Amino acid sequence: MDGGDGRGGVFLFLGPPGVGKGTQASIFSKARGLPHIATGDILRDAARRGTPPGREAKEQYMDRGNLVPDKIMLKIVNERIDRDDCDAGIVFDGFPRTRSQANYLDGALPNRGLRLERVLYLDAPEDVVVERLSKRRVCPSCRANYHLRHFPPRKEGVCDRCGTDLIWRDDDHPETVRERLKVYENETAELVQLYEERSLLFRVDASGGVEEIRAAIEAAG
Ligand code: AP5
Questions:
Q1: What DSSP designation does 172 have?
Q2: Interval 98-147: pLDDT, tens
Q3: How far apart are CA 11 and CA 213, in angstroms?
Q4: Is this prediction's pTM over 0.70?
Q5: CA of 5 to the centre of ligand 1 (A)
Q6: Ligand 1: distance of its center to the CA of 198 in Å?
Q7: What is the residue-averaged pLDDT of the chain?
Q8: At how many degrees (to 10) do helices 70-81 and 39-49 cross?
Q9: For a Cys staple, 220 with which of 17, 56, 202, 203, CB 3.0–4.6 Å?
Q10: Helices (H), the chain
Q11: How many other CB atoms are there within 10 angstroms of residue 135's CB atom?
Q12: Residue 15 CA: which ligand 1 atom is closest?
């Protein structure tokens, strides 16, 4: 896929924690045949492997609901987008989250023959996102994502895909969720206006069902 001018198209999924960015970015990236780069997943993988930067990111920032510092994040993203699978375009999920991460993309994409195509901004009332997070369970092995009410696993507590025991993410506990929502408002929400001013933003009401939201995103082109 290209952005209409021969350059690979890049899509950003932006929105508060728990709104469904990961769920929709995964569907969208498969439909478009583009790599899905979820910075939260990359950090959790590094933490699980026990690398020093991964452990530091989890213990010092993620488990407290804070953002990982830009310096660490930009190094990770820079290495990831240098891989060949990004030549045709990218679906970012949870990146950028700060003004300086957005500035980084402005330089890094054209340098790699890529072009920011559209920003899918998913929004829903706070009670909806809190409910989604409090009942989310994830597979630490294959990353499958469940919801105790909407998408429960066939066997309680066990991943349908790979049989691993599901976990409740440390940062999905209520106190940390509240902090993540605050951090989103303080650090990330301003990006909505930034991309709106550039006519790149497409607003999606993410309070409905997965299929309804998917169709709204698809209609954005
Ligand atoms: P990250 O993993 O990116 O967390 P997040 O942005 O807070 O997003 P979530 O993964 O919590 O939610 P989501 O919107 O993807 O929703 P999901 O599809 O899972 O980041 C975690 C941490 O890493 C950050 O706090 C930060 O510390 C660090 N980090 C990451 N990126 C960073 C960056 N760029 N800079 C600095 N630090 C960074 O859905 C949620 C639940 O709802 C699931 O159970 C799902 O099954 C269910 N669901 C989804 N859609 C629907 C629907 N339509 N109806 C009903 N249920 C639904």
A1: G
A2: 999 999 999 999 999 999 999 999 999 999 999 999 999 999 999 899 99
A3: 16
A4: yes
A5: 32
A6: 25
A7: 94
A8: 100
A9: 202
A10: 21-32, 39-49, 52-56, 70-81, 99-111, 126-134, 174-183, 190-197, 210-219
A11: 17
A12: 14
Report whether residue 21 contacts ligand 1, using a CB cutoff of 6 Å.
yes
Give CA–CA dist 164/140, Å, rounded. 8
Distance 110 CA to ligand 1 centre (A): 27
Token pair belonging to 182: 């605050």
Tell me the longest C-alpha to C-alpha distance in the chain. 49
The pLDDT tens digits of the residues spanning 183-219 come to 999 999 999 999 999 999 999 999 999 999 999 999 8
What's at 16, amino acid-wise?
P
Cβ of 35 less than 6 Å from ligand 1: no
Residue 5 is predicted with a pLDDT of 59
Amino acid at 41: D
Q: Of the listed 112, 115, 143, 169, which one is catalytic? A: 169
- At residue 55, φ and ψ (nearest 5 deg) are -65, -40
Measured CA to CA, the distance from residue 183 to residue 146 in angstroms comes to 24
C-alpha–C-alpha distance, residues 132 and 172, integer Å:
10
Sequence-distant (6+) residues with CB within 8 A of 191 are 14, 96, 97, 99, 102, 119
Instruction: In whole angstroms, give the CA distance from residue 96 to residue 32.
Output: 20
Strand partners, 118: 11
